[in-house]
Amino acid sequence: MIGRYGQLCTVAYGAGAINSTGETAKELGFKKVMIVTDKQVEALGHSQKAIDSLKKANIETVIFNGVEMDAPDYTVEAGGNMAKKEQVDGIIGIGGGSVLDTAKGIACFAANEISISDMIHHAPMKNPPVRFVLIPTTPGTGSESTFVAVITDTKKHEKVGCFAVPSFSILDPELTLSLPKEITAYTGMDAFSHCIESLTSMQPNPHSDLLAYDAIERSVKWLPVAYKDPNNYEARDNLALASNFAGKSFNDSTVHVGHAIAHSFGAHFHIPHGIGCALVTPVVIELTASKFPEKIKKVGKIMDIEINSEDPVVIGKTVADGLRKFMKSIEVPSCKELGITREEILNCTDYVRNEPLRNFGGVAVTDEMIPELLAKIYDTYQ
Ligand SMILES: [Fe+2]
């Protein structure tokens, strides 16, 4: 069998990297760019740094600051129409996961005559996206190094999306120094879940595995440090890399049933994506240990969890319990603490059944297994 692995786009990395935005845009030949961001990122002054750098490089800018949580379709449409009207030749997304996904959607919409509904439901697009650069301000989604944009269909209450490859990414850990501790925990657990699902998908490869193990190591060492001390640069630096490597890893492999379930939680309960990912990941570990006992054992070793068995079931349970303990240390709330009942969790069954990602794991998930997995999430993390 012939495998495949790849890289997505070049990443400029380091403290103050955002100040090189103008230089990058010049290299890409941009003349007029649209900054895609939200009001919080603007208030923190992050987008202004990019604008100043673009001005120095004599590149004209227009600003779209209307991004909302979970990248709703109507914001992609509004931003895309603005990009068309302003005739920009480049797009720069600066912000968290929703901003980066919205920027990807805008880049596709601006380059095509297509309805927003057709676009996010994967109708063929005639033209490639307007070229775009992504600058994350939260370490979690790794969206700056993936070709996937998750966009919300607000009429059907579904997470769907489109595909677009960034031309370049700028990873500046300094931008994450101001993040509150709970966002640090949730976004960090999103990255962690990307690693576990990438390792246990139907198509991992040596390259995606390598990136996932490294990202897990950085996450378990530095997430508790950043959680306690948000201004610790070394921790932020390592978590920015962990998020980026985890994104590269699942971009080269895939996420699967964990994200199908996390998406159902987002749609039903409107909780942050990272919390949904955290809640489901121990269950994904238990599920996939039967097929990947050596990989789960290695994850346990990286997490310093003692495993005294060769039995895949015991390996899975031991590592999952170790992760639950880790989640408690960074105060990830349980379903109950979030006000979600066991019955409400089970009501996600149909959503998960219809979520294509559920089929992408290395272990097949039957229809009957879905309510069992959902109940286990509630019962095993209180
Ligand atoms: Fe995710």
UniProtKB/TrEMBL annotation:
Name the keywords, alphabetized.
NAD, Oxidoreductase
Q: Where is the Alcohol dehydrogenase iron-type/glycerol dehydrogenase GldA domain?
A: 11-173
* A molecular-function term among this protein's GO annotations: alcohol dehydrogenase (NAD+) activity
The question of whether NAD is a record keyword is answered with yes
Could you tell me which InterPro entries the record lists for this protein?
Answer: ADH_Fe/GldA, ADH_Fe_C, ADH_Fe_CS, Alcohol_dehydrogenase_Fe
**PROSITE patterns assigned to the protein according to its UniProt record, in alphabetical order:** ADH_IRON_1
Q: Any idea where the Fe-containing alcohol dehydrogenase-like C-terminal domain is? A: 184-376
Which parts of the chain are coiled coil?
none
The protein's matches in Pfam families, at most eight in alphabetical order, are given as: ADH_Fe_C, Fe-ADH
Query: Which CDD domains has this protein been placed in?
Result: Fe-ADH-like
Give the UniProt family note: Belongs to the iron-containing alcohol dehydrogenase family.
Write the protein's name. Answer: Iron-containing alcohol dehydrogenase
Organism (species): Clostridium thailandense
Phylogenetic placement of the source organism: Bacteria, Bacillati, Bacillota, Clostridia, Eubacteriales
